[in-house]
Design a protein that fits this description.
The protein is mostly helical and 139 residues long. The chain has 6 helices and 2 strands. Helices cover 57% and strands 3% of the residues.
Length: 139
C-alpha cells in the first residue's frame, strides 16, 4: 500500500490524538510513537517535540482522519488498537475515537468490532514488525 505525505501526516497525527485520550503518555506509547515516526520518515526531533507537546497543545484539532484509501484506515485502526492496549487498559474514549475514525472512513462496523476483539486477545506489541505501518510504503 502506497501512502501520500498527507496520509502519513494524518496517520501520525491521528495516533498522537489517540495517545492523549487518557490524558497521560506512557513510556511505551512514547517509544512506539518514535518507532512509528521513524517508519513514516519523520525527523526524530519533530516526533519528540510532538509527543512532548500533545497534552498541552490547544491548537491541535481533535478530528478523526479521513484517509485517501480505506486500506490505510484499516491499518491505522489496527495500529491504534495496539497502542491503546499498550498500557493494559482499554479506555472508552480511545475506543470511541477509533470507532469515529472507522465511521469517517466508511469502514464496516462489524469489521471494527472484530478488530477490537482480536486486539484485546493479543499480547500487545511483541515486535516492531507487529505494527501495520512497518509494512506500508509511501510516495
Amino acid at each position: 500500500m502506497r501512502m501520500s505525505l498527507m496520509d502519513r501526516s494524518m496517520y501520525y497525527k491521528g495516533l498522537m490524538l489517540l495517545i492523549r485520550k487518557d490524558r497521560e503518555i506512557h513510556d511505551e506509547e512514547r517509544r512506539i510513537m518514535m518507532v512509528i515516526g521513524k517508519a513514516l520518515s519523520f525527523d526524530a526531533k519533530f516526533c519528540e517535540n510532538a509527543i512532548k507537546e500533545i497534552l498541552t497543545n490547544k491548537h491541535v484539532i481533535d478530528t478523526p482522519p479521513c484517509f485517501s484509501n480505506p486500506a490505510i484506515a484499516r491499518c491505522f485502526i489496527k495500529d491504534g488498537l495496539k497502542i491503546a492496549l499498550v498500557d493494559n487498559e482499554t479506555h472508552k474514549t480511545e475506543l470511541a475515537w477509533l470507532k469515529a475514525v472507522a465511521d469517517e472512513n466508511g469502514l464496516d462496523g462489524g469489521w471494527y468490532e472484530a478488530s477490537v476483539e482480536t486486539a484485546s486477545r493479543q499480547e500487545g506489541i511483541e515486535s516492531e514488525d507487529d505494527l501495520e505501518v512497518k509494512h506500508l510504503e509511501w510516495e
